Every structure is written in structure tokens, then in C-alpha cells.
Amino acid sequence: MNAMQRKIEEARGKGKVGLIPFLPAGFPDRERFWKELEELDAAGASVIEIGMPFSDPVADGPVVEKASLRCLADGVNLAWILTELRKRKGQFNAALLLMGYLNPVYQYGLDRFAEDCEAAGVSGLIIADMPHEESRFVRDAVEPHGIALVPLIGLNTSKERMKLYADGAQGFCYFVSVLGTTGQRDALSARIKEKLAEAREVFDIPIALGFGIKHPDQLTQFDGLLDAAVFGSALISHIESGRSSDSFMEPWK
Amino acid sequence: MRKGYFGDFGGQFIPELLMPPLIELEEAMETILPSEAFQTRFAAMLKENVGRPSAITYCPNLSKDLGLDLWLKREDLNHSGAHKINNTLGQGLLAKMMGKKVLLAETGAGMHGVATTVAAAMLDMKAVIYMGATDVIRQAPNVNRMRLMGAEIIAVESGTKTLKDAINEALRRWLADQETTHYCFGTAAGPHPFPTLVREFQQIISKEAREQFMARNQGKLPDVVVACVGGGSNAIGMFHNFVPDESVKLVGVEAAGTGEPGCYSSAPIDHGTEGVLHGMKTKLLQTPEGQIEPSHSVAPGLDYPGVGPEHAYLDAIGRADYTTINDAQAINAFKVLSRREGIIPALESSHAVAYAIENKDKLQGKSVLVCLSGRGDKDLGILDEIM
Q: Which of A76, B80, B88, B90 satisfies CB 3.0 to 4.6 Å to B119 for a cystine?
């Protein structure tokens, strides 16, 4: 079983929703980033999602885009992320997931990327601009190294397409709560429940809800339909306002 | 060839949430596009509204000056001033017949934005146009035209504030509004099926030009066919029906920017490497780490760090040659064509005209057919600044 699935199921075993915080690598700066990760880990994150900054992040909203561009300007790149993670291998209780866009990974070299991820203790990968049709070559490269390619589905994903993603999927399924980019929303769509129930029938791995999540109260309406929650923009804004990751995680504990 | 690919280039590298509207569009291409209802109305619109067929024009003065036979395919004579209208009326009609209410578009020089706004007005749809904040300033006449015809214009402040950022923002808007909105992509690039769909609407340029040239030249084909390449829609339209004619040399002209060593260019085929951006695998201007580099050209419509995948393919198989022209050479061609033939070309098209001027020694005695993709009224402000 992939480490991400194991961690989410551990949380569920304690009657909790698995927590998946997202931060772009190198945010708010290259040194403090690692301290934030330690805090998130200590506060009970099941999986920590680390963004691989890209110059043209079309699936991201303004908060994540701005943070990512700042990290790029600070000189963050894949080599730095993977080297620093490797130094800290085994130090995190949470499973580690890298999220980004295909081009930087493609330029790094897929095989080298998969090997370096394994050496760094990474167990999951999200490529935001890669639908099922284009995913085979990435999946073939990373899975032999114990890295799950996490499927992203959403409100407009048909059951037939969900089945394509579910076939052999590992880790967890990332359900995108909005038709749009990342970012906080005050209200979540009423259609989420119905589509989550559909996803439940199709996937036999945990399901995480992401995009627009800022507080645990938003999730009570989905009891029984999801296993984990992903939050990024709200956490970034929280840190930008000078507060700690730990205090963000408080209501989720 | 794999579906949606031109050799190794193309594909659908976009978030899953955009797959349903792309699949819907592909189905519409297969069912609505070939229908008599679509074809009849589209042909009528091209004739009555665009003014097709556009002329080909022999340039007697410049031909004499350069020692070659220079012909122009006059897309600048189209309604709204450029080839862009062929594509926007096609996509607009398709979207209307798909039941969409809004045409969403990105624009660099503003010509695609104007053409999309014209299509929306004609088809009683709403136009929403994303434009880099820098381009909003340098292409003010087109912004005014769009506003007059009822478009909502959104100035994009992120990134380099030019075409690539306008595409990013338009893709984000499409993600959110896909049920009511068609993304009227402006060039033969982006995720499948856009490169094929846009080529389908633009290939009329070479269909007409080929027939017209042969009718005027005792059945002979031109020696060289030239077009400027940004995303590459006028060029793929100009090349398409000449591709099987092996005697015809196809030349795509990319923008070299200022041309100084280390400057930003808009020449991904000549100066770029293979990568993935805006839904396609193609040649890109990028760092070794895969971050997209800013691009530059004096011609806003060429100012894009990527290129349509079919051009990357034609280059890879050696069927078309791609070369560069810098800002100063393009501006020279802009002036020369204006003075010698009374035709003010768009700065984009000036790059293609400049190819004939700069290579006149190699082209002595040859017939050179250049796609004049648009007219240059919109660029007079840029020229005022430079001159």
C-alpha cells in the first residue's frame, strides 16, 4: 500500500479526516519553508503536498501563483527541492507528495526525477496539466519507484472518465471541489455531494477534497463521502499574514 | 500518427477539468463542421462578411527593386484587417451551433480580439477578451475597436503581461465558465483539437492563393511561399495546400526581437527546445529547468514563447524552413512596402516581407508568394514611438 493511503487511513482509524496541507517549495522563504513543513508534520498532517513552482501555472489561482512566482524568483528549482528533501529523508511522519506542471519535470528528465524522488522519500506526484490520455509515460516512469500518480477529478468528470483514472490508481484520489482554479471559496457547490458519492463507487482508494477549503466546518456536510482534505491558498494567506502553520492546523486537530 | 499529434508534437496537456469541453468540441468538429447547415452558412459569411476570396497582388515596383517576382496574398483586405477573421467566424458559428452564448478569447496584437468581437456581434453572442496589460497599451486602436463593438476587455497584469499570460488567464476563465462559453483560441496552437480546428479554418488562404497564383502564371506554382510565425495560424493556413507540392519551398519567419546576442526573441523553432506549455508539446523558449522565458518582438502578434505543434513537426521533418527577422529588418520592410506599393502591412506580416528583402540575392529570378496576414494601421502608434 502506498504511504499516502496508509497515512490517510491511519487518520480515519482515529475518526479524523486526513489532512493534506499544500505549500509551494521555498515559501515563504527557502529557510523558513522547512520549519513550516516541520510544524505541519508535528500538527498531524497525513500527507504534505509540496508545490514545484512553474512560471505558467494555469490551474492555480492568484494566491498560489503569486507565492510560486516568488519562490521561482528566489531560485527554487527541482534540483534544490529534491536535494533538500533527500537530506531530510525519514524526518517526516507525513507522506510527501510533489505537485506541479509537466514541463519542469520533463526537462529534469522523467527517469532521473523518479529516481531522485524515491531517494528523497517522496511517495506521490500530481501533474496538474496531464489528463489520463497523456499520463501513461509518467506513470510508467514513477510507479516502479513506489511513487503514485494521484488522479485529479472534478464536478464535470463523468463516471466513465472516473473509471479510467481509477484503474490501478494508488495513494488517493484528489477531488477538485470547483470548476475553476485553486483558491478559497465561501460556499461549496451543492453538486459536490452527488459527485463524491459517484467517485466513492468508482475508487477503492481514499478520496480527498481540495480547492476552496479553508475550515473544517465546511466538510461536515460531506461526512462519510471523503477521507481527507487539501488546503493551500488559505494556509499560504495565513502564513503571509505572519501567523504560524501550527495555528492554522489548530481547528483541524 | 497518434490522434491530436503531429509526429511527436501536439497532445492535450491540460487539467482534467478541461477535458470535457475539449471532448465536446472535438465531437462538434466531427458532426457539426461537415454538416451542410454549417458549411453553407460559413461559406456565405466568408463571402458576404469577410470579403473572400481575398486578392493576390503582384508588386511591380518591389519586384523590380529586388530582382524577383513578389506576390502578396492579401489577408489584410479581409473585414477587420487580418486573417484572424477566417478562424473566429468558423469557431463562432460552431460554438453558436453547439449552444454556447459567450466567445472567450486571448489576444496579443488585438487582431484576434477584434475578429472574435466581430464574430460575437454578428452571431449575437457575448465577447470576453483577455489581453496582456502591456499589449492593451501598445495596441490601443484595436482595444477601442473591441470596446465599440461591445467586448468585455480584461487587462492581464500577471507575468510578462503579454500574450502568454493572456492565454493563462483565458484558460482559467474557461475552466470556470465552460458550460456557457467557447474558448475561441486564436492560433493553430494549444491542446488538441485547436491546432487542427484553426488550420481547418485558415487553410482557405492557401487554397485560394494556390489557385490564384496558378491562374495568373500559366499553371505554374510559386518557387517560395513565405509567412510570419507567431503561434503560426496564418502560416499554417498559407502552407497547408502547398505541403504536397514538393517543388514549393515553404518558409516560416519567426521574430528575432532586437537581434542582439542574448536578447529575448519570439523564435521558439530557431532558438527554443522541446517542452510542454498551453496544452501542447512543442518547441518553446524556456530555461534548462523548464520555466518559460519571456519573449519579445516589436510585433505584438508574434510575441509568444511557443509555436503551433504542426510547425514544430514541419520543421522536424524538413518540409518547411524556419528563419528569423529582427525588429529593425521588419520595420524597414514596413516602410519599404508602404512607400513602394502603397500597402501598409502589419508589423507581424512585415517580418515575412522582410524575408524577401533580406534574401533578395538568393531569390534572384524566383517567384515569391508572401502571406500578408494583416494590415498595419494598428501599428502606427508603435512606429511613432520608434521613429
A: B88
